[in-house]
Design a protein that fits this description.
alpha+beta; about 130 residues; Alpha-Beta Plaits; single chain; 4-stranded antiparallel beta sheet
């Protein structure tokens, strides 16, 4: 499922894995925001891509409510990092993520990828 630099119509569907990591906005790893450290780790491990989503409300195992409401101001809003990649790449990164995530949740589920396109590395002018 690595990106093909050439645009193409939807080809044969491929099986992949959706990796979701639920953490808090205030969570840290080695002094940096945890979500940023996770994205860098996924990128360095050549996974297919990642997206960080910031929630407006949620609660976790402790049942403590985290919300962006003015009446219940919370600075520790929910963060979800999503990544779709090949099963072998996701399986290989799980032990690393387990070490990074203290309070949080890591899930995986099978997905079918119908279209995955990217521009690929940019070429030098005239290249």
């Amino acid at each position: 499922m690595e990106p093909d630099p050439r645009p193409s119509p939807a080809g044969a569907p491929e099986e992949g894995v959706l990796l979701r990591i639920f953490v808090g906005e205030d969570d840290r790893h080695e002094g940096r925001p945890l979500h940023h450290a996770i994205v860098e780790t996924l990128r360095a491990s050549n996974l297919s891509g990642a997206t960080v989503l910031k929630g407006i409300e949620g609660f976790g195992r402790s049942s403590r409510l985290h919300t962006s409401s003015v009446l219940r101001l919370s600075e520790d809003l929910p963060i979800v990092i999503e990544c779709v990649s090949r099963a072998d790449k996701v399986a290989a990164i799980l032990p690393v993520l387990d070490e990074m995530v203290g309070d949080g949740l890591i899930t995986t589920q099978p997905v079918t990828v119908h279209v995955y396109r990217g521009a690929g590395p940019r070429e030098a002018p005239g290249g």
